[in-house]
């Protein structure tokens, strides 16, 4: 079958790729673009291992055809960090041991990050609902929920720090005069 040249916005970058019309976004990400953080799981839309963000919303890449996604913003796990700085949820996953085998981790991180982008202080019920399409066979989800809670707190702290005025420039080593 003939490949078609399309342009996809992946992780903030326009990428031209020649795709087979019947290939899923999951196949294109992994096989054509080398973005292997998105995992093959059931390929039936049941497990969430292939979760990506489409215009900020978690979706299953095994169910999407890339031909229909031109002009849409696609974020994979490789694009969750910001200029080399891990997303707070990535940090708390690592710190709290929320990942065990790691297979579900990319999908969990993206679904959790999407939740935090829209609900900065989610309840456990909101977390359960947001992660309902992502299966984990190792953790029992408790550490994952704790990591989301910790990331929420960390994001609040970072916003608070960003809102604070910095040291004044008064020519005395950056110290403030009273």
Automatic annotation (TrEMBL):
Keywords: 2Fe-2S, Iron, Iron-sulfur, Metal-binding, Oxidoreductase. Residues 158-178 are annotated as: Disordered. SUPFAM superfamilies: 2Fe-2S ferredoxin-like (SSF54292), CO dehydrogenase ISP C-domain like (SSF47741). This is Oxidoreductase. It comes from Ktedonospora formicarum. Gene3D superfamilies: 3.10.20.30, [2Fe-2S]-binding domain (1.10.150.120). Pathway: Alkaloid degradation; nicotine degradation. Residues 4-80 form the 2Fe-2S ferredoxin-type domain. InterPro entries: 2Fe-2S-bd, 2Fe-2S-bd_dom_sf, 2Fe-2S_ferredoxin-like_sf, 2Fe-2S_ferredoxin-type, 2Fe2S_fd_BS, Beta-grasp_dom_sf, Diverse_Oxidoreductases. One of its GO terms (molecular function) is 2 iron, 2 sulfur cluster binding. It comes from the Bacteria. CDD domains: fer2.
């Amino acid at each position: 079958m003939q490949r078609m040249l399309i342009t996809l916005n992946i992780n903030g970058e326009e990428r031209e790729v020649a795709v087979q019309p019947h290939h899923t976004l999951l196949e294109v990400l992994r096989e054509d673009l080398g973005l292997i953080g998105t995992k093959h799981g059931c390929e039936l839309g049941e497990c969430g291992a292939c979760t990506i963000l489409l215009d900020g919303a978690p979706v299953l890449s095994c169910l999407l055809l890339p031909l229909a996604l031109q002009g849409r913003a696609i974020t994979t796990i490789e694009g969750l960090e910001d200029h080399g700085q891990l997303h707070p949820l990535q940090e708390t996953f690592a710190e709290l041991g929320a990942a065990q085998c790691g297979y579900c981790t990319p999908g969990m991180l993206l679904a959790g990050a999407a939740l935090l982008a829209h609900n900065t202080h989610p309840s456990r019920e909101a977390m359960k609902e947001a992660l309902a399409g992502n299966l984990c066979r190792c953790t029992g989800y408790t550490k994952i929920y704790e990591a989301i809670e910790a990331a929420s707190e960390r994001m609040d702290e970072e916003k608070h720090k960003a809102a604070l005025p910095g040291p004044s420039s008064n020519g005395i080593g950056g110290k403030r005069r009273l």
